[in-house]
Amino acid sequence: MRSVLAMLRKERLENPLVLRIPLFLLACGALLFVSVMSNSSLQNDMSFQMSINGNGSDILHSLGDNINGFVTGAAGLLSILLGTHYFPRTLRKARTEGSIMFWRSMPVSDVKTHVVKLTFGLLVIPLVCSILVLAANMMLWILHVSTEHQLALFQSQASLGNILVSWITFLLRMVFAGVLLLPLALSAMAISQKVNSPLIVMVLAIYALKWMPIALFGFYGVDDFFSAIFSLPMSAVIDSNPFSAISEAGAFNVAIYALCGVMAGATSLKFSRTV
């Protein structure tokens, strides 16, 4: 366990963007929150709108749901983008810098190395991004309890218990999204050990695999497959039922996707044993 924590700490130090970007967005959100709190006319304007419109409470409640959905979706998208930046370069960086030989001399197996990197990319990064969800809900709760008339706009932030449930729900959704991202992460790690620009190679390969069958045979099956699997992670984050993403993608597409993940994992381990 101590070696795993040390390796995770190393990943954090080698990938400062994982902390810097969420912290920057958190600082921007805090400045926006301060500006809203300092606007004394906000409460009166909202109360006036609710008083002159009979269904104003319903409108604000719907708007509040949209705000919560936006915060969750933005944090989930940021986590996926940071993972997309992380996986294609993590093993490649170790080979380029020569640190792979150092870890090879340590009692650290290739399997443990892969597990640590997958844990960092699929669990630690979402955990860091979840701070944005927690902070946004806390700010809305403070705004909710500080207003003269508590507004339906912040109904989901009515209590600290609701905030905690919202944060845990986001984490569980991101764990499920991490499982759905696993085959893509393993594919990126495998390709990164053989090419200098793995992300570009992956984009070009996917583009060719999507459009070549259409251009040559008029076959859209490959295009439908990629469209289905690429929508899986975000669907798990933003859909009301995260598990519906699998049924929407189709059992056959998910099975092929999982098989590709197994093959990519075996290939990545094989490449990592060859320096």
Give the total of beta strands.
0
What integer value in Å does the Rg equal? 22 Å
Oligomer: single chain
Q: What portion of residues is helical?
A: over 70%
> Unreliable runs, pLDDT <50, ≥5 residues?
50-56
- Succession of helices and strands: HHHHHHHHHHHH
Number of DSSP helical runs: 12
Overall pLDDT confidence: 82
**Main β sheet profile:** none
Class by alpha and beta content: mainly alpha
Cα separation of the termini? 26 Å
What fraction strand? under 5%
Apparent shape: globular
Structure description:
There is one protein chain. The chain has 275 residues and is mainly alpha-helical. The chain contains twelve helices and no strands. It is globular, with a radius of gyration of 22 Å.
Fold blueprint:
Layout: H1 2-14, H2 17-37, H3 41-52, H4 56-97, H5 99-105, H6 110-146, H7 160-192, H8 198-217, H9 221-230, H10 232-238, H11 244-249, H12 251-272
